[in-house]
Amino acid sequence: MNLFVEIFYLAAAVLFILGLKQMASPVTARRGIVWAGIGMVLATLITFVHPHVNTNYLLIIIGIAVGGGIAWKTGKEVAMTDMPQMIALYNGMGGGAAAAIAAVELIKHHEMDPVVQLLAVAGALIGAIAFSGSLIAFGKLQGLKQLRGAFRFKNQQRINAALFIVTVWMGLGIATSGTDYGMFTLFLFFALALAFGVMMTLPIGGADMPVVISLYNAFTGLAVGFEGYVLDNPAMMIAGIVVGSAGTLLTQLMAKAMNRPITNVLFSNFGETTGEAQEVSGSMKAIEAPDAAIMMAFAEKVIIIPGYGMAVAQAQHKIWEMTKQLQERGVTVKFAIHPVAGRMPGHMNVLLAEAGVPYNIIYDLDEINEEFRTADVALVIGANDVVNPIARTDPNSPIYGMPILNADYAKNVIVVKRGQGAGFSGIENHLFFADNCRMLYGDGQAVANELISNMKEL
């Protein structure tokens, strides 16, 4: 590789790292995305003069045009509520691309350094798992009828473990045999890796998808990094390692937020329980919008807990308008965000930022939880498992041990909800039956609008 190409790859890598650092804060995240995007454009353009890329220019341009065009159109049109599905799909495409690079290199049957060949196989394995697993995650998030819920059967973990061991064993065989491996063996290795990605994701319920998405994001980054080493491409190596490291850290944070070790995420049907769940006592008590508006308008402190239901209703703008109404009346209003609220990491932060909610009134779980005891009203809109007190009390609950927002400690709780169903996870929420809780039924945006109208009349 000539010095000219290396310098531009290094510049692209620096832009990736700076961009990722900027994305650490909502204030600078937009700038970070632009910087990383410029780095990607730079890396793509300089690849055209890479000494190993001297044919098929037309095919490359057509591929970039088609892929870029689809990404541009879908990126502009995708609804915020569908963003988790798009992230899952893009994760899968990245993993699939890395696996495809490995397949091309291994099909060539040319002599490779043993370390390079091992990394090619490792990238193929991880990339293929990320590809098929992400497609299943996409289907679950999209609510496809065939993939709805968690698919579990007897001895599933043993079958998955056996499948994984056989796949790794075949991969090691390919990695250590030089060019002495057959095409059928290679085909079978990829088929088993893809099958493991499917089998690994099928048992996982929708409530755990944020962890799965961040895990596959890490897988994709690592696979790209490995294949960058195979192609001797520094930009791919650095970008892949940065994405893989960031994804791994995010996965650990998400798992910690759900009080689940990474091994449990990887090798168990998490969310599965063996005992009988604690019965719900009490009943749901409804409240009308005028009474809820009075309760909040005359409160000293209101804490708002947004969840996926707010995203579905696109109620974030009305909720911010309502917040300003309360602030004008002298009410202290804060937003409490659970790390796994929504269906992807940072989902609620993005929605609130889109509505213009200032960052200084948005708090993470650790920062806000002690304040619920001093809150007059906790307004839950579209959130479910992250405020379910059963996570503290019932060892047989699928979410037992998961840190939750202590909404039930507030003097009054108002839950905005469409109906009395158990929600996406299928777990009954004991908060909804508590004595201090009132249910405000309806679409999130319509309810927020009604609350605003009633507050203006006070």
TrEMBL record:
GO cellular component: plasma membrane
Membrane topology qualifier: Multi-pass membrane protein
Sequence intervals crossing the membrane: 6-24, 33-51, 57-75, 87-107, 119-138, 159-175, 181-202, 209-229, 235-255
UniProt main location, coarse: membrane
Subcellular location: Cell inner membrane
Family annotation (InterPro entries): DHS-like_NAD/FAD-binding_dom, NADH_DH_b, PNTB-like
Similarity-based family: Belongs to the PNT beta subunit family.
Name of the protein this chain belongs to: NAD(P) transhydrogenase subunit beta
Origin species: Candidatus Thiothrix putei
Organismal lineage: Bacteria, Pseudomonadati, Pseudomonadota, Gammaproteobacteria, Thiotrichales
